[in-house]
Each structure stands twice: as C-alpha cells, then as structure tokens.
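Retro notes, item 3 of 5
We never archived the inputs for the NDP complex last cycle. Fixing that now. Sequence and ligand:
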Amino acid sequence: MTDRYAVFGHPIAHSKSPLIHAAFAHQTGQDMTYEAILAPLDGFADSVAAFVAAGGRGANVTVPFKEAAFKMAQRLSPRAERAGAVNTLSFAADGIFGDNTDGAGLVADLTRNLKRTLAGQRILLLGAGGAARGVIEPLLEQQPATLVIANRTLSRAEELATLFGHGIRAATFEATDRPFDVVINATAASLAGELPPLSPRIFGADTLAYDMMYGHTPFLDFARVHGAATADGLGMLVEQAAEAFYLWRGVRPDTAPVIASLRA
Ligand code: NDP
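Structure as it came back at the time:
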C-alpha cells in the first residue's frame, strides 16, 4: 500500500511542501503520497488523529501548530526538545515521534548550498519567535565566534539567550550597529512586507544577509542596497524537507535539482 504523508497548517494552500516531497519521492523511487491538510485553528490534534487512523505515516507541521505538535509528541529528538517546537512527526506503532528539522535545513543551506563556513563567524539572528528558537542550537553547533539575537521585544531575545547560554547576547534592533558576517532574518516582518528598524551598519563588504522567507523581501532589498550578498529561505525550505524525508524513508534526496526547479 502507498504510504501517506501530509503537511498540516492554517493557512496551507500556499505550501510548497507537497511539490517538494513529490519531487523527492519521484527522484528516489519511494512509493508514497504527500498532501496539504488545512487543520482548523482549534482542531489540530483531531486532524492529525484522523490522518493517523486513515493510515498516515508521518507529517510536517507549519504555522501555527509547531508548539501543539511539540505537545502531541510522545517522544522527541534532542533538537526538538531544545527548540520547544516540532515541524516533523513520525507515526509508529510505539507512538508519535517529534523532530525539528528547521535548524538543520538552515545550516545545510548556508554551508552546503551557499558555501559559508560558520565557524568563527559573527552571526546576527533577527527575531525570537519559533523559527529563531529552532535554529539556535544547530547554529551554535557550527561554533560561531559570536551569536547575537536581536528582537523587537528585548525580553524574548533575553529569554532565548538565557535558555541556550554559550555567551549569546540579546539586543534590540536599534542597539545593534556593528558589522556581522551573517545576518539571518527570522522575524515575521517579511510576511507583512515590513522591514525591522535595522541599522545599515550591520552589513559589511563580506556580509551574507539571509531571509528565512523566500522570494523578494524588504530585508533583502535593504541588505543589497547596503552592500551585502543576499539569499532567501527557499534553500532552507527544501533542506528541512529533505531532513524530514530522510527521517521517514531512510533515503537522502538530492536537493539541488529540486531547489533549481522551484526557482525556475
Ligand atoms: P513567530 O510568530 O513565532 O515570531 C515572530 C517574530 O518576528 C518575533 O520575534 C516578532 O517579534 C518578530 N516580528 C513580527 N513582526 C515584526 C515586525 N513587523 N518587525 C520586527 N519584528 C517582527 O513566527 P516564526 O518564528 O514561526 O516565523 C518567522 C519567519 O520565519 C516567517 O517569515 C516564516 O515564514 C519563516 N520560516 C521559514 C522557514 C523556512 O523553511 N524557510 C521555516 C520556519 C519559518 P516580537 O517578539 O517583538 O513579537
């Protein structure tokens, strides 16, 4: 029987995950389907339970259900535990396993696709929501020289700095005005077509500005005008999907052709 997978979100119609996983399945010869499921805002657990009862083997979880998925999982990977959020569920006879592949996806895109070494680098992470939280530990594993978390609400950045330790510094956007090697926008500002109040001095001649959102964003325009190299989050999206695919199927798809075809 063909194995069933899905992505749950609200909204979900925009999701590229079904396309990405269909491409992975085709490339690796896996017998599986992958659909997008719109879960009601107050009905995530019931939607997942219905999917499992109908034979679902695994799922991705996107906005706004990553914390609900974290609570639903009976077992967690260490990286999901630290992130406090789950974007990948695996349904097995011994219960629901939760993982978080967002951080691994970001690091894979930065290091493999964009050829950036993160060790010894000065990294600025903008935002302190679920996306930021999920990438902190994988970024720290790369041993950067500095990790600064800047957020509109300083207390949320301070909470994350305390939680993860390792000398992470918390700051406001306004107080951050020295050049960084890599600046990662993990705020939801791009979704609203907005630019956080950033100083152009965070960008130097060799800075890579990375927006977790994909496509054209005010942050990437601003960074480009101030001399930074730029990249959007499409590579991260495909890499986090590849990591989930590997968890479910034990096979690593080749991400490069999938990124290229989505760009085209
Ligand atoms: P959350 O709602 O959890 O967090 C939102 C964050 O953005 C908070 O830090 C918030 O600040 C900040 N913020 C919101 N609006 C503004 C604004 N106008 N100006 C400045 N800061 C703002 O969202 P997520 O963390 O889940 O998602 C953030 C982004 O990451 C989204 O664009 C999402 O699409 C993207 N993402 C991309 C992925 C990929 O694979 N490419 C994977 C996961 C996420 P405050 O604390 O002050 O409210």
